[in-house]
Design goal:
By secondary structure, the protein is α+β, with helices and mostly antiparallel strands. The chain is built from ten helices and 23 strands. The protein has two domains: about 100 residues, Lipocalin (Beta Barrel); about 270 residues, Beta-lactamase (3-Layer(aba) Sandwich), CATH 3.40.710.10. The strands form five sheets. An eight-stranded antiparallel β-barrel has the order 1-2-3-4-5-6-7-8. An eight-stranded antiparallel beta sheet has the order 10-9-23-22-21-20-19-18. β22 and β23 form a beta hairpin. α1 runs antiparallel to α10 and α2 runs parallel beside α6. The chain is globular and about 70 Å long.
């Protein structure tokens, strides 16, 4: 739903144009571009962005002939369209923009970028400048809800949310909190909506770990010392002649000795993540990487993609089907999106979930693999996968695709397990307080977390709120 009104400038190219695209199944994303005119050269130029897909770029080579327009979006993307003065709209085709092919799109002119949307708008469409607490909705989706109550704890968290409506945390989409198994906080800002799917980026890795645990529980995987190569017989011709010294456990802990650069370089032509995502076959790309000497831990999304391939090999079904049958269905997760590249499900970062459903997965882990009295994953796997396996960065540890550490708040220390994804996706679990905290953002460039909720907010506002309740 647009929060702004359409402009009416007949046959005027200048301005912001808006449409929706679906590049990931069940996920509707905003695509916008703006055209500006150079006063000196009299030529048009501009920029575009798909905010929730973390993509943007410059527009160049704008060619206008009457009501027809053609321009370059970069990286092989082109748009060719025609202006309609009748309804101030622009229809045409995007070439080379979607990985699935060309797209027919219909743009309308709007007053402002979606990225400039205020933090919170009330039901009358007015900007909200004063935050007030509301009990989460009862939705018959498996969550029981509880009033946060009043008192000192509520005042602390109110201070945090007041900063949000005052736009201290631009890009924050959702904050959800469960305490002692019940949903007590559910707040949506900017792009967030209760039923809207949100990217979880590399938090997908932690869900992949849960699926490996289910496969272990079902006896589909004998043990974690089995070589990864054994599960890709169809790729035998592409494999290196030397046997990989890489086991399933090595992949789970990202301790495989591979020549892989992901954190070490920016996402681009020198990044193995970029090259894998743009390859014709992600499995082949990773399986052809050469062994390399390295430190114990080395972040490698390709290994998690191979874990997805192992699940498909041992189960005989797609990762999506395996997840839906053995995990999502019992949790009441009916609507989700999972990005695929050339037919391969991206288990390293491609999952989109409703915020309430994502928090269920955190609660499942807090419950030791149990949901509503049913054991979906063995408690032993939950304990094993979320325990410290090896040091990863600074004092932080890594388990089986889960991060581990301790966090201090008000002179006390609490054990912390979490999933983390690009752009400010954080699912924090604090077993000592029976607390699950979900922060979702669209902040891919806020690497210093200047306006992204994470550990600081957890320590300063969230933990004090629930350590007194």
């Amino acid at each position: 739903m647009l929060f702004f009104s359409c402009q009416r400038e007949k046959n005027h190219w200048k301005g912001i144009w808006h449409t929706s695209v679906e590049y990931i199944p069940n996920v509707e994303s905003v695509l916008e571009f703006e055209l500006r005119k150079n006063l000196i050269s009299n030529e048009y130029h501009g920029r575009w962005e798909t905010l929730d897909l973390f993509a943007s770029g410059e527009i160049s080579k704008v060619d206008i002939d009457g009501v027809n327009i053609h321009f370059d979006l970069g990286n092989g993307g082109l748009f060719q369209g025609k202006f309609s003065a009748e309804n101030d709209s622009l229809s045409g085709v995007l070439y080379g923009f979607s990985p699935e092919g060309n797209d027919t799109v219909h743009f309308v002119k709007v007053d402002e970028w979606t990225s400039r949307k205020p933090a919170l708008i009330n039901s009358q469409g007015n900007v909200t400048t004063k935050w007030s607490y509301n009990i989460p909705k009862e939705m018959n989706d498996g969550w029981s809800v509880k009033d946060l109550g009043s008192g000192e704890g509520t005042e602390i968290i109110s201070e945090m949310f007041q900063q949000v409506v005052e736009e201290r945390y631009r890009g924050l989409d959702a904050v959800l909190i469960s305490h002692k198994g019940r949903l007590v906080v559910e707040e949506y800002f900017y792009l967030g909506e209760i039923d809207k799917l949100h990217t979880i980026q590399s938090c997908t890795k932690s869900i992949t770990s849960l699926l490996i645990g289910i496969a272990m529980d079902q006896g589909l995987i004998e043990n974690l010392s089995q070589p990864v190569q054994n599960f890709f017989p169809g790729y035998i011709d592409t494999l290196a002649t030397t046997i990989w010294p890489i086991s399933i456990e090595d992949a789970l802990t990202m301790s495989a000795k591979l020549d892989w650069k992901e954190w070490e370089v920016p996402y681009g032509p020198k990044s193995d993540l970029f090259l894998m995502n743009n390859s014709s076959n992600m499995y082949s790309y990773v399986l052809n990487k050469k062994p390399d000497s390295q430190n114990t831990f080395k972040y490698n999304t390709g290994l998690t993609v191979l874990l997805g391939g192992i699940i498909e090999n041992v189960s005989g079904v797609s990762v999506e089907t395996f997840a839906e049958t053995n995990l999502f269905r019992d949790l009441g997760i009916k609507n989700y999106g999972w990005y695929q590249l050339n037919g391969i499900v991206h288990t390293g970062g491609g999952l989109w979930l409703r915020p309430r459903d994502f928090l269920k997965l955190g609660q499942l882990v807090l419950n030791g693999g149990q949901w509503q009295g049913k054991q979906l994953i063995s408690k032993s796997w939950i304990n094993e996968s979320t325990s410290f396996k090896l040091p990863a960065r600074e004092s932080i540890g890594y388990g089986f695709q889960w991060w581990t550490d301790y966090i201090s708040s008000e002179h006390k220390s609490y054990s912390l397990v979490w999933a983390e994804g690009l752009g400010g996706q954080f699912l924090f679990l604090l077993p000592d307080l029976e607390l699950a905290v979900l922060f979702l953002h669209h902040n891919p460039n806020d690497l210093d977390l200047d306006h992204t909720m994470a550990w600081k907010e957890l320590s300063k506002y969230i933990i004090p709120t629930f350590s007194v309740n």
